[in-house]
Amino acid sequence: MKNYTFEDLVGDEKVFFAEYFNKKPLLRKAAMPGDVRDILSIRKLDELLHLEVVRPPYIKVNHNGSGVPEKGYTRSVVVQGVNITDTVVPEKIYELFRAGATVTWCSLNQVVPELRDFTRIISDKMAVRTDVVGFMTPTKKRGYLPHHDPVDLFIVQLEGTKRWRLWDLPDERLGDNASYTDEELGEPSIEVLLEPGDVLYLPYNTPHAAAAEDQVSLHLSIMMRPRMWKDLLRETFEQVASAPEFNEYPHIGALRSSDVESLFRQKITSLAARMDSLDAGNELDRLADLGRTMPGSSHGTTFQTIAETDGLTPDVLLRRTAAPVEFGANEGGRTQMTVNGHKIAVPAPVAERLAGLADGEPVPAGEVFPGVPAERATKAAQGLTRLGVLEVTGAH
User: InterPro entries per the record (predicted)?
Assistant: First the structure.
């Protein structure tokens, strides 16, 4: 799959954030370069359906605006002696689809590794939790009744076409779910036809409805879950309130002592002072880092890295990873190190070399252990790489 960027979704970032983000819909025709079926295709969904491991809530079925009970398309199977009670039956899904039902594939980023790229694109930029949901709708059918969602949406049309009707944002946006009747909404303020490669951005709580045209429609909804001020403040409060002074256990029942109320007031004052003294920029950076590491977009190559470590040579360049390392005292020429909860003792020169490496500074594997032959130093480097202390960055 092509490596897509945030700009593929939104175009000019400055224009997007100034004019559209959290304000109004944005339509970008033919925004996604290449064959978008490489992202996800109807054929690929056929393959996924027949893996015999798909279970609700990863797949849902909606018919005539209502959800089909899961028992209508699941069965029990035995896997390695374990009874799985709700495995999807492909034939029943196909039967419902032929009858006009929309098949919804939830959190595809947890099932299709390539789709995690989209979640990372948005999580890295927006510092929020992101999920990818696929909607496959039969020809001339409407998947869901008019509604709004508690998430921002980047809609990417992959196959077929779908006509979208959009209504103005409500005056009060609570970040909730809501469904409407056509009569309640009246005439849409925007009506657009999405074709393969088109992208439509909808701010959270935008009322919308969509229907397939002359072909089966497949589109992705990349869902960006807003972090409201109340969410950010709650995370900041939890961080500040973790200070030791708030760990005391008071009795606050009817028989509480007379000084508890004044102590409570003191704690509130102390908490407020701690909140007030925060560096707003640093705290927002911390909150952004938390948002980028939320579930749904993680990735790694640890298996591959460990496998490649067996072939490490002295001229391979390594660098410190982000793994926290605690260095103990030098005892008899060996230094105790704690890495990811594991305690190991390494030759003191190795510990000194590691402790002296600046962020991103490369070191040849053959020089990780100063004062010994390159082959022995490389063996030490292999052990540290397997532990996650070092990682390969290039060749010397």
Answer: JmjC_dom (IPR003347), NO66-like (IPR039994)
